[in-house]
Amino acid sequence: MSTNILAVDGPFSKFKPFIIKVAWIEWDEIKPTKNTKNVATQYQWRMKKNAWTNVFIHAFIEHCPYKTLKGCKISFQRHKVVMEPVIGNFMSAQAVCTRNSCSMKYKFALKRKPQCNAEVSILVE
Ligand SMILES: [Zn+2]
């Protein structure tokens, strides 16, 4: 992969998935809480509004191994939390890069609910 290209073009499949890490103390601030005002059960558990995207973006900038992707301006589109997933992820989120020259799409995933006081490893692909 060339590192002198500033603008990148999706899909992410050109890159290897990587892990970003969030400290427990940060995760504890944004971890999903139940909102029973939402009727649809799939939207009851939500990470802390606005705060979680900031935490994820900072973790992305810190841990992204690709120079060409580090400049991506990530905008999250949706996230989903399943408290006890039988299949699939505990948390998943989708994001896009908002730079005009870049159409990169990202998926963030957390397979299981993080252990208390443990660093949280989120897969980006
Ligand atoms: Zn980008």
Overview of this protein structure:
The protein has 125 residues and is α+β, with helices and mostly antiparallel strands. The chain has one domain (12-124). It is built from 3 helices and 7 strands, in the order E-H-E-E-H-H-E-E-E-E. The chain has helices at residues 24-30, 51-63, 67-70, and strands at 18-22, 33-34, 45-46, 74-81, 91-97, 105-110, 120-124. It has a 5-stranded antiparallel β-sheet with strand order 1-7-6-5-4. It has a two-stranded antiparallel sheet with strand order 2-3. A hairpin with a 7-residue loop joins strand 5 and strand 6. The longest helix has 13 residues, at 51-63. It is globular. The protein binds zinc ion. Zinc ion binds next to loops.
Features:
globular; single chain
What's the topology here?
Layout (H helix, E strand, L loop, with lengths): L17 E5 L1 H7 L2 E2 L10 E2 L4 H13 L3 H4 L3 E8 L9 E7 L7 E6 L9 E5 L1
Antiparallel strand pairs: 1-7, 2-3, 4-5, 5-6, 6-7
- Spatial shape: globular
What distance lies between the first and last C-alpha atoms, to the nearest angstrom? 16 Å
| Structural class computed from helices and strand pairing | alpha+beta
Kindly provide the radius of gyration, computed on alpha-carbon positions and rounded to a whole number of angstroms: 15 Å
Biggest sheet character? 5 strands, antiparallel
The DSSP helix count reads: 3
User: Which cofactor or ligand species appear?
Assistant: zinc ion
Task: Explain briefly what this protein structure is.
With 125 residues, the chain is of the alpha+beta class. Helix content is 19%, strand content 28%.
